[in-house]
Amino acid sequence: MNRKGTPVHKRIARAESGREEWKMKAIERREEVEKLKLTDERKSEGIERLLERQNQLEDELAKKDKIIDHLEDRLKKKSL
């Protein structure tokens, strides 16, 4: 890259522009990583909410099953 015919100011300009380009790419990579992290966090939060809701529904179902069992027992006692 260092040729005798290339003036120093051009070599310096190329090096500086290369450094700026590298910095911009590094910033873009960091931003992309942050976006992915946020997406993962949102997905994790969504999964947690769904699991909580599933537990609530299972509890409600268990309560209603108890009520149904109780009513069936009462109905059997009446029929006897």
Compact description:
The protein is mostly helical and 80 residues long.
Helices and strands in order:
Elements (H helix, E strand, L loop, with lengths): L7 H72 L1
The level of helicity is over 70%
- Helix count equals 1
Terminal CA distance reads 102 Å
Structural class: mainly alpha
Average predicted local confidence, pLDDT = 88
Low-confidence stretches: none
What does this structure look like?
With about 80 residues, the chain is an all-alpha fold. About 90% of the residues lie in helices and about 0% in strands. The chain has one helix and no strands. The chain has one helix at about 10-80. The longest helix has about 70 residues, at about 10-80. The model has no long low-confidence stretch (mean pLDDT about 90).
Q: What attributes characterize this protein structure?
A:
mainly alpha, 80 residues, 90% helix
